[in-house]
Write a structure and sequence with these properties.
The protein has a domain of about 220 residues: Metallo-beta-lactamase, Chain A (4-Layer Sandwich), CATH 3.60.15.10. It is about 35% helix and about 20% strand. It contains ten helices and twelve strands. The longest helix has 25 residues. It binds zinc ion (ZN).
Length: about 325
């Protein structure tokens, strides 16, 4: 895979356990080789990474810079295996996640416990919500060496600029090369995937959970205004028709919003009940994704004042606004 005369970009695909299956990370060649994301912390992923780097003529010790697109374990876990002198770049909000800052994870725990009740999640689904301990063992425990924000450059790849794209997570960034319109996109846009956000607790020092679908829409709106020609994503195939995919995203959301209004016109319902109707046949398999998208759609409708949340007979339900 080559995008310029002097710098090659190689896609490395690593295994991820469970329904996700695999993640793409990218090696950018140069005097100081750079990795974009590193993969999940399993022996299989590490073995596969070493093998693929070797095939390209590299060893993990040759990597001098690592840029993390966001904090999810499938993108950051193997960071612990890299030498101490590697520079690690990411959004400032990412650090408490990847360093496994205790206060944040405690906040996460209490967030989940509160929202289990508010969202009306039945007992048999609660263990599908999130197993923090599992995700911690597959993730890293290490800090960023360099914080990056909108417009910043990474010294080893100065032709790329950082674009902040919160939404999929509040920590998400992409790398954009203006010269040829190439975007290394992380999980912001994935071909044929229309569930793009993951519920998060309030950030440290904040009391409200981030409204990630709002942020997501702003971020993809921002990408739509850039002359991006192709996206190297964190999962799935390379994306060339960016505008069409963004349009599809917005259309899908509108359709889901209409469906929720229809469902709530029948009667007031809990978030869980709405989720089961919005994602028939899917919520049982990928509950956290389905729930996160449901919450996002409800946030959008609440913002438009079409619906409101109330406590009726000791249950938190959404209903059509009067
Ligand atoms: Zn992700």
């Amino acid at each position: 895979m080559e995008y310029s005369n002097n710098r090659k970009i190689h896609k490395i695909t690593l295994p991820v356990p469970g329904p996700i299956g695999s993640v793409h990370i990218y090696l950018i060649e140069g005097k100081e080789p750079t990795l974009i994301d590193v993969g999940i912390k399993t022996e299989e992923a590490w073995k596969s990474l070493i093998e693929q780097l070797e095939n390209l003529g590299y060893h993990p010790c040759d990597i001098k810079h690592i840029v993390l697109t966001h904090h999810h374990a499938d993108h950051v876990g193997l960071l612990d295996r890299f030498p101490d002198d590697v520079k690690v770049y990411g959004h400032f909000k990412m650090d408490p996640w990847i360093s496994q800052e205790t206060t944040l994870y405690k906040q996460f725990d209490s967030f989940i416990n509160t929202y289990r009740i508010i969202y009306g999640i039945p007992e048999n689904f609660q263990n599908k919500l999130l197993n923090i301990n599992d995700s911690l063992t597959l993730s890293c425990k290490r800090s960023l060496t360099n914080v990056v924000s909108e417009g910043d450059e990474i010294p080893s790849i100065p032709d790329f600029k950082i674009i902040e794209t919160p939404g999929h997570s509040s920590t998400h960034i992409c790398l954009y090369r203006e010269r040829d319109g190439l975007l290394i996109g992380g999980d912001t846009l994935i071909q044929n995937v229309f569930l793009n956000t993951m519920l998060e607790p309030p950030a440290l020092g904040e009391t409200q959970r981030p409204k990630l679908l709002f942020q997501y829409n702003e971020s993809i709106g921002k990408l739509k205004n850039l002359p991006i020609k192709r996206i190297l994503p964190g999962h799935g195939q390379e994306i060339v028709d960016i505008h069409a995919l963004i349009e599809q995203q917005f259309k899908k959301q509108k359709k889901r919003m209409k469906r929720v209004i229809k469902v709530l016109k029948e009667k007031p319902q809990t978030v869980f009940e709405v989720c089961t109707k919005l994602f028939v046949g899917f919520y049982e398999i990928q509950f956290l994704l389905a729930l996160s998208e449901t919450v996002g759609i409800l946030d959008l409708l609440e913002q438009e004042k079409q619906i409101e949340m109330n406590c009726l007979r000791e249950k938190w339900v959404y209903q059509i606004s009067e």
